[in-house]
């Protein structure tokens, strides 16, 4: 699926749409917590989201694209209470599970968006406004004929970079070597971004190891991190 407003940009919904019903707990979270914590991108009013009003405070806004089941997201939000942490995801059950994790940790600095990250960034997040964007272990689409479906492409990275405030960080991680090389090439070619390291970033100790990363380690795949900084426009 591609946004009609940005036909050349691949949408986050180019990921495989996972099926299956929500658990009783996830459904309860949707019923009880979604009105407070979540919004659907397709139902947002025109224009930028007022994050300060939604969170009830002004604070740096950090966006995570593709939060999955929320295993990492909840822990990172808990570790950064001074940040307004926003997660966008297409998988409803994943958002339900993340709300359960947020409830268990007593998080107050996390908000959720269901839908297309491209539309969110294009229509609802103004330029130069985000303190950081995180994209951890996006769908690798390992078959060569499917590489065009990967999220990290030049047009998408250009869009993300434009939404970062100067000094803001784009942090990516993947355990697929070819995708890691593609990420490095694409981000290095974006004029608004500067690599904080000669190539790969040291694995941050604060990034939790998920079950998927642990499985990759067991299968002999090395996880790579990339951290790029938004530079001021000349």
Automatic annotation (TrEMBL):
UniProt pathway annotation: tRNA modification; N(7)-methylguanine-tRNA biosynthesis
* TM annotation in the entry: none
Name of the top EC class for this enzyme? transferase
Catalysed transformations (reactions): guanosine(46) in tRNA + S-adenosyl-L-methionine = N(7)-methylguanosine(46) in tRNA + S-adenosyl-L-homocysteine
What's the domain of life for this entry? Bacteria
Query: Which positions in this protein are listed as binding S-adenosyl-L-methionine?
Result: 64, 89, 116, 139
Any one GO CC term of this protein is: tRNA methyltransferase complex
One MF term in the entry's GO annotations:
tRNA (guanine(46)-N7)-methyltransferase activity
Classification via PROSITE patterns: SAM_MT_TRMB
Q: Which UniProt keywords apply?
A: Methyltransferase, S-adenosyl-L-methionine, Transferase, tRNA processing
InterPro entries per UniProt: SAM-dependent_MTases_sf, tRNA_(Gua-N-7)_MeTrfase_Trmb, tRNA_methyltr_TrmB_bact
For the ligand (substrate), the binding residues are 143, 175, 210-213
Give the CDD domains listed for this entry: AdoMet_MTases
Q: What is its EC number?
A: 2.1.1.33
Hey, which family's this protein in? Answer: Belongs to the class I-like SAM-binding methyltransferase superfamily. TrmB family.
> What is the protein's known function?
Catalyzes the formation of N(7)-methylguanine at position 46 (m7G46) in tRNA.
Provide the protein name.
Answer: tRNA (guanine-N(7)-)-methyltransferase
Taxonomic lineage from the root: Bacteria, Bacillati, Actinomycetota, Actinomycetes, Pseudonocardiales
Q: Which gene encodes it?
A: trmB
